[in-house]
Amino acid sequence: MWRAEGEQAQAMAAAARLLAQARRIVFFTGAGVSTESGIPDFRSPDGVWARYNPRDFTFQRFVASAETRAASWSRLLKSGLLDDLQPNPAHRAIAGFGAQGTLDRVITQNVDGLHQKAGVAPELVVEVHGTARLVRCLGCERRFPTPLLVPRLEAGERDPRCDECSGILKLATISFGQAMPQEAMREAVEHASACDLMVVVGSSLVVNPAATLPLYALEHGAPVIIVNREPTRLDRHFDVVLRGQAGTILPALLDAVRAGA
Ligand code: NAD
Ligand code: ZN
Which of left, alpha, beta for 13 (phi over 0: left; psi -120 to 50: alpha)? Predict the structure, then answer.
């Protein structure tokens, strides 16, 4: 295991070797893989939690209060999530492993759709916290693309309702206090357990149950690499710890594998 800063070159070489040998790689990504696309994460010093109170984000409050819903839609309009976001070199490198034929799944906590936009086949992306690309009716379960709702929000609707059943509309994301999507979690656990290498990218690994997914890989004997700017509480269990920017480290690893690491 390589951890010290001065040993980053050795750690990069070890990670490249693991990636070159693996046949069923699972990437497990968090908000940190998208910060270089301009989307703030939650827990960095300039992250979303620095500006908002997590208690305002619960599902129960969203359902109970029209004011909370209005605040939530207005926050979405200002969040940048609706902009024409572009994948960054980290997303593209992960897609590059898909082109190598060794990518089993990308399990992501992100709701931004950037892995698919970078070229990972949609059926290989498991979104365990849902997606902001869709709006869901909590009444009739109808789903539709978020851009269809934006003009209504911009026109001043504060608590937009479903055209079909007048139900409460919510982004198809998983909020605190909301049940995890069963099928996505089942698929995530299955692939985390069966991969022969997991690469964790840009996650503080504090949000459960998603953050337990690397433990399934470890329990089944797969090595785990982490690429993250800051330490996490699980680092001591991982085989290689790479500290730095995902958009720099992942393309370098892909290059090394392509060059025959
Ligand atoms: P987090 O904010 O808790 O942690 C992000 C981690 O990524 C931090 O440890 C940070 O040091 C690291 N990081 C930030 N930029 C990085 C970079 N360029 N390279 C390497 N590491 C970097 O994020 P989380 O663990 O994903 O949990 C937050 C929850 O918030 C997730 O469940 C997710 O659903 C949601 N979220 C999603 C988005 C998105 O879709 N892009 C954005 C914010 C939050
Ligand atoms: Zn409805």
Answer: alpha
